């Protein structure tokens, strides 16, 4: 069992996200607004 954990994980150095994923994350981050109130509360609002 020790051999399983000591082996190096095979990872690809060639990780490239799909265009759809990048587009989704950019549009989500642009639509996300965080509003902080006076009593140290914050609200996350997503404007579609």
Task: Please give a handful of descriptors for the protein shown.
alpha+beta, 48 residues, 2 strands, two-stranded antiparallel ribbon, single chain, 2 helices
How many strands in all? 2
The largest sheet, given as strand count, sense and whether it forms a barrel, is: 2 strands, antiparallel
Q: Label the overall shape.
A: elongated
What would you report as the Rg, rounded to the nearest angstrom? 20 Å
Low-confidence stretches: none
> Count the helices. How many?
2
Task: Explain what the structure shows.
This protein has 48 residues and is an alpha+beta fold. It has 2 helices and 2 strands, in the order H-H-E-E. The protein has helices at residues 2-6, 19-31, and strands spanning 32-36, 42-46. It is elongated, with a radius of gyration of 20 Å. The model has no long low-confidence stretch (mean pLDDT 83).
Describe the secondary-structure layout.
Layout: H1 2-6, H2 19-31, E1 32-36, E2 42-46
Antiparallel strand pairs: 1-2
